[in-house]
Specification:
The strands form two sheets. Strands 7-6-5-8-9 form a five-stranded parallel β-sheet. It has 301 residues and is an alpha/beta fold. It starts with 12 loop residues before the first helix and ends with a helix. Helix 1 packs across helix 12, helix 2 crosses helix 12 and helix 3 crosses helix 4. The protein has two domains: 139 residues, Aspartate/ornithine carbamoyltransferase (Rossmann fold, 3-Layer(aba) Sandwich); 150 residues, Rossmann fold, CATH 3.40.50. Bound molecules: phosphoric acid mono(formamide)ester and norvaline (NVA). Phosphoric acid mono(formamide)ester (CP) binds next to helix 2.
């Protein structure tokens, strides 16, 4: 049976920690320009229903560095876009490629795909979760600060896919998560409940940010919510991460954002480009964290 990575809960806490540490080793090998190509003849199919820069480039480059190959498949150009069921696509691709990554809208689509796939399936973002980004975020924290267990992380903004994956990470890696969001934009209540007392919701950004070791935010309107942009700009106006908000956090707090960022909307330019921001390393770690994930899933078969 293939192992899948649809959410952070698909790996045990021990396995997640091993992937994070392996990502650091693979990064060191790559920085030394050492060849490590264990997956020659292996192919990753990447199915995209939404735009991407980081996810596409990191997966494609990761497979190239491993000696393998990656196929970029946009729903606009495949039969999926003309209505071929994901169940049929999953059974066909299982006979041709070795591993699949999907970026789509409904989370149920990746679940239906995985249920019909003999090969590992990776969630490259759905409306509900973005677990690959959390691997990179957690690797970045680990490289700057060591273990995240017992730390206080603050999520500011929308209770969206990234926020849901942060809730899963809090549960799996043992940190406290404060969520500061406007009323009406809270994360899914069942996902919050699954993390018990480790997650606390605030409808005031300052209260959420107090004593944080890490502040994280994301765009106010995610892909698929473009028509709500103006409405959301009003609703989120008191939830910008700026220098004033960062002062509520601990003095050595880090700032992360999955990117792309909207400067002077959800984050001020000063914070994004400032000394506490680790967003460029965070983005770069997508490559190494996902290589560790691919290796884990291919070797787990
Ligand atoms: N953070 C992230 O997933 O970026 P892309 O949308 O560019 O892939
Ligand atoms: N929440 C954002 C993340 C983009 C990487 C979105 O879904 O558009």
């Amino acid at each position: 049976m293939a192992r899948h990575f649809l959410t952070l809960l698909d790996l045990s806490p021990t396995e997640l920690q091993a992937v994070i540490e392996r990502a650091c080793e693979l990064k060191a090998l790559q920085l030394k320009d050492e060849l490590y190509a264990p997956f020659t003849n292996k192919t990753l199919a990447m199915l995209f229903d939404k735009s991407s820069t980081r996810t596409r480039v990191s997966f494609e480059t990761g497979m190239a560095q491993f000696g393998g190959h990656a196929l970029f498949l946009s729903s606009k150009d495949t039969q999926l876009g003309r209505g071929e069921p994901v169940e049929d696509t999953a059974r066909v691709l299982s006979r041709m490629v070795d591993i699949v990554m999907i970026r789509t809208f409904e989370h149920a689509t990746v679940e239906r795909y995985a249920a019909n796939s003999d090969i590992p399936v990776i969630n490259g973002l759905t409306d509900l979760y973005h677990p690959c980004q959390l691997l990179a975020d957690m690797q970045t924290w680990y490289q700057y600060r060591g273990s995240i267990a017992g730390a206080t992380v603050t999520w500011i903004g929308d209770g969206n896919n990234m926020c849901h994956s942060y809730i899963n990470a809090a549960k799996q890696l043992g940190f406290k998560l404060n969520i500061g969001c406007p009323e009406g934009y809270s994360p899914d209540s069942a996902i919050v409940a699954s993390a018990g007392t480790q997650v606390e919701i605030f409808h005031n950004a300052e209260d959420a940010a107090r004593n944080a070791d890490l502040i994280v935010t994301d765009v106010w309107a995610s892909m698929g919510q473009e028509e709500e942009q103006k409405l959301r700009e009003k609703a989120f106006s008191k939830f910008q991460v700026n220098s004033r908000l960062m002062q509520q956090a601990n003095s050595d707090a880090l700032f992360m954002h999955c990117l792309p960022a909207h400067r002077d909307e959800e984050v001020s330019t000063e914070v994004l480009e400032g000394p506490q921001s680790v967003v460029w390393d965070e983005a770069g770690n997508r490559l190494h964290a996902q290589k560790a994930l691919i290796e884990f899933l291919l070797l787990a078969q």
